[in-house]
Amino acid sequence: MPQIFVYIAHRDGVVDDSAAELLAAAQKIDGSASPIALVAGSGAELDSVCNSLRSSCNEVWKIGHEALAYPNAELIRKALVKVLPPPGSIGGRAVIGNCSRGCLAAGRIPAAINAASAYP
Q: How many whole angstroms separate alpha carbon 71 and alpha carbon 93?
């Protein structure tokens, strides 16, 4: 079964409004898959966001580091490359994401988290 990862944007310990839409989109990609939330940041705010997602996601992957306290697209991309399984190694995957607060500026957002993308 493919895994679907959803990058969850947040600010000040509060999940971005887009999270619910992204989780719904993940279900539309594959209704049998349970989306895995990917959350990057640091400190108590990151912990708060991860805890709030536990009721809507079976798995929450916390990517914590002081360097991620402020969203930086390049650092987040590097972190995602390190934690995500290689495409095709698990029967395919999809990674979807959004950042309506502009924390990942257009043109600097990795394609994998810019929009719904399926990897065969």
A: 24
Q: Partners of 38 in the beta sheet?
A: 7, 61
Place of tokens 């502009």: 102
Backbone angles phi and psi of 94, in degrees to 5: -130, 140
Determine the 3-state secondary structure of 11 from DSSP. Answer: strand
Q: What are phi and psi of 21, to 5 degrees?
A: -65, -40
Is residue 109 very low, low, confident or very high in pLDDT (cuts 50, 70, 90)?
Answer: very low
pLDDT tens digit sequence for 23-44: 888 888 888 888 889 999 999 9
**Which backbone phi and psi does 10 adopt, to 5 degrees?**
-155, 165
User: How many residues are listed for the chain in this entry?
Assistant: 120
